[in-house]
Specification:
2 helices; 8-stranded antiparallel sheet; alpha+beta
């Protein structure tokens, strides 16, 4: 008699497994908007910057394998400068301050403030506000 119930149990279990897969599947995937390699200007700076549209809305810039020198008052700027090589390129551009640098090295991320669209921005810069000096930057190129 138990063997007669096997198809019903299997069907119910299969349906349950399908429901689990459907609910576990992500509804949205993050989209890479732009990325670029860091280069040093006044200080050695390296790593990769990746600008993404976040799953829940908004934007984030991520640094992978990032490294730079220590310094006073270091901030991360998203900039309209295309490929900044000089301090003046950042000083004369429109910049969005993403906050103080979180660490000298390693992976880190910065959330763009609500309402800020990344469309106009072409680079990300590591900027010393005290001396108005760019430590390094990454030109952001669309995939």
């Amino acid at each position: 008699m138990r063997w007669k119930m096997w198809p019903q149990i299997f069907a119910a279990g299969g349906l349950f497994a399908c429901l689990l897969l459907i609910t576990a599947a992500p509804l949205q995937a993050e989209e890479i908007i732009a990325s670029g390699q860091f280069y040093g200007t006044h200080h050695p700076t390296s790593g990769r910057a990746i600008l993404v549209a976040r799953d829940g809305g908004g934007y984030e810039i991520r640094f992978e394998d990032f490294a730079s020198d220590d310094g006073p008052d270091i901030f991360i700027y998203l900039s309209t400068a295309e490929e900044p090589q000089t301090d003046a390129a950042i000083s004369n551009a429109r910049n969005e301050n993403l906050g103080p640098r979180k660490a000298l090295s390693g992976d880190q991320s910065y959330i763009l403030p609500e309402g800020v669209s990344p469309d106009a921005f072409k680079s990300v810069a590591v900027w010393c506000r005290t001396y108005s000096v760019m430590f390094g930057a990454a030109a952001l190129e669309k995939p």
